[in-house]
Amino acid sequence: MAPSTDRHRRLNLQQRSTLAGEAAAAAAEVENALTHPAEPFAAAFFDVDNTVMQGASIFHLARGLYRRKFFTTRDIVGAAWKQAYFRVVGVEDPEHVADARNSALAFIAGHTVQELEEIGEEIFDEAMAHRIWPGTRALAQMHLDQGQRVWLVTAAPIEIASLIARRLGLTGALGTVAEHVDGVYTGRLVGDMLHGPAKAIAVQALAEREGLDLAACSAYSDSYNDLPMLTLVGDPCAINPDPKLRAHARAHGWRVRDYRTGRKAARAGLVVGSAATGAAVAGALVRRQVRRHLS
Prior knowledge:
- This is HAD family hydrolase.
- The chain crosses the membrane at residues 265-286.
- InterPro entries: HAD-like_SerB, HAD-like_sf, HAD_hydro_SerB1, HAD_sf.
- Keywords: Hydrolase, Membrane, Transmembrane, Transmembrane helix.
- By secondary structure, the protein is an alpha/beta fold.
- The protein is built from twelve helices and eight strands.
- It has helices at 3-27, 57-67, 73-89, 94-107, 113-128, 134-145, 158-167, 197-210, 227-230, 243-251, 265-268, 272-293; strands at residues 43-46, 149-157, 172-176, 178-181, 184-189, 218-221, 235-239, 255-257.
- The strands form two sheets. It has a six-stranded parallel sheet, sandwiched between helices. A two-stranded antiparallel ribbon has the order 4-5.
- Helix 2 (57-67) packs across helix 5.
């Protein structure tokens, strides 16, 4: 690849991340306001997938939409493989994340915002509520009890992110903004997914809007990809961390919390390569189970 082409591609990605972060902050609404915040300059920011919720929220959404005939078995099998990899290996692959989120957003093209919000309520009860990590939920409640606002920060669509925040009694959410015209989704994103650097941009923009002191704030995530967001705040914490984040957290004296059972590969000394082999087996099983049980 020519240097100029590579530079242009990186610049374009940076611009899209910036736009995604700014769009997420602009779309963020307070779902549950504190009457009198005891700590008005402090807040906590939580990643969702594998931090607040077991697995990928976008997959749970996609499965619910599949059952409502939004798309085909072939589509959901592809998403199921990525979910199996994510759950067994415990590491986000950026290409998998991009494919899963972009595919899911393409599925809602032509549907209305109101339709997704109404169906999202049903899907939360069916597939998400029982997958909330109790330990992470308790951490979020601790911040609320201290009079701090608590925001979710996720690559999931803002409509679903806001729903999860509302159902958990949190302040609000920052999520990927899907373009819609006259209340109908176009299948395109505003900028890019709210992932990696875009999360940090969104948090910074929200902090400026809400008058927050990031040095007094906390952030929680399972993924090394969220390092830009974690390093923004004064109190970062690794939740169910992937190996790279666990190593970084230990090296820098960050708090680490692991609420998983039976999947603690890093703690057991297993290498990611071995887990990837397990993911391949899990993926094959998932493909068979999807066809058998999702219809």
